Amino acid sequence: MSFEQPVLWLGLAGFTPEQRDQLSSLLTLMPKGGPSWRVGAFAEADGWLVAGEKCRLVGADTLKILAGLPTERAVQLDLDEVDRPIAFALPLASSDFDPKHTFDLNSAASLHKALQQFESWLRPLRSQFVLGGQLIARESELLPGIYHVSQKGTLLAVMDFREWRIGISRRADPVDFEQAHWDRRPLEAHDIPSHFLRSSLTQLRWIYAQRTERDVLPPRYRSRPLYFRHAPAVPTRWLRDSQLLLLRELSVEGGDFDALQRRTGLTPGQLTRDLASLYFAGSVTTTPDKAGTSAFSVGEDSLPGKTHNGLTLAAAVAQLPGAVPRRDLTAPAQLGRK
What we know:
Blueprint: E1 7-13, H1 17-27, E2 36-39, E3 47-51, E4 55-59, E5 62-65, E6 75-78, E7 86-89, E8 102-103, H2 108-121, H3 123-138, E9 146-151, E10 154-160, E11 165-168, H4 174-178, E12 181-185, E13 197-200, H5 201-211, H6 220-223, E14 227-228, H7 241-252, H8 257-264, H9 268-280, E15 284-285, E16 307-308, E17 311-313, E18 335-336
Parallel strand pairs: 1-2, 1-3, 3-7, 7-8
Antiparallel strand pairs: 4-5, 5-6, 9-10, 9-12, 10-11, 11-13, 14-15, 16-17, 17-18
Helix pairs in contact: 3-5, 5-9
């Protein structure tokens, strides 16, 4: 495929340092041309790879994954709440556990097959990525109203710039959007088919900014002071630890790119990616008059004890490496481990 592919993030659990190195080596052997898989924070990943020998069933629908690193704690998953693909490295600790996806840690072909299954599961997300990139590229030329995105007579998406919402066909393949036509339609054509995946145009842009390898942060965000406007209109669980820290920092005090890097301890690359996402969500600005007047806070659904994705929200922003404590920087952030 020649069109832009997203960066997709893998979370690892239960693997020893040697096994993690082995997985990293296998990932470099994956065929080119598809999504770029990279290892990231477990709770923030698009898909999970788990050491099968470290898994224990502690209930009918509860799985405990023993730590593989000295710095880790065990992870406990409610399998009914897991909302992302997960594959288990063989061997499995028990024959009582029969997962849908497994792979051989010694085989690049076996890992590739598992990741292909992940990519199929994540097809709606990959379609949103492609359409989000097109939206950002065309935004200056689009007019208010309704747009239908179709390919060879098949409706792929309905984009409503009046309500700022979108519906995407669950059956659409990412490549379909590269060959699709955008047709402006009358306001009466705003209905989204019931079987389409619904989201907002803000969420579409967020998905693209988080997963592109391109630098899409406007240049002025590297040279001017930055200010907090409002919380991003995306699900709370989409916010990474680094973004929560950055939002809380900016709501306390504005600052330019270099100052924010010093205050948060984020790398330039991570700061660029996070600011780009927050920019496309309208959460940050370089215009002082547009700055918000209230401090940033996360919603009730992300307080400690609440659950998302089969994990418990527990860690705080102030626990991030390099974080500089400033006035109650304790917004719950990371999906914790038991």
